Known about the structure:
The chain is mainly alpha-helical. 80% of the residues lie in helices and 0% in strands. It has helices at 2-43, 54-71, 79-99.
Amino acid sequence: MENYNKEKYNRAKKRVDELKGFYIHLAIYVVINTFILINISLRSDSFWQWEHFITLVAWGLGVLFHATKTFGFNPLLGKDWEERQIQKYMDEDKEEMNKYK
């Protein structure tokens, strides 16, 4: 029972660390990109140029991927897909074992 509680605690701690890491990443993203965009707007005559938003978009994709990993959202390879694949391979193994009985 003690091992079970320790395992639950470790899983919960890992989940909290993942969330904390994501929120720190998001906060740094917001602060740094706000600074960059304010700096560009103060020093540039034409703010709305693609070059000014490359960091925002590229890093934003990184934050998006981090969010999908942290919150378990994956429309292509979600839990449903994972369960189907596990069942498929378990069935294949079972059929293979039945061949040799």
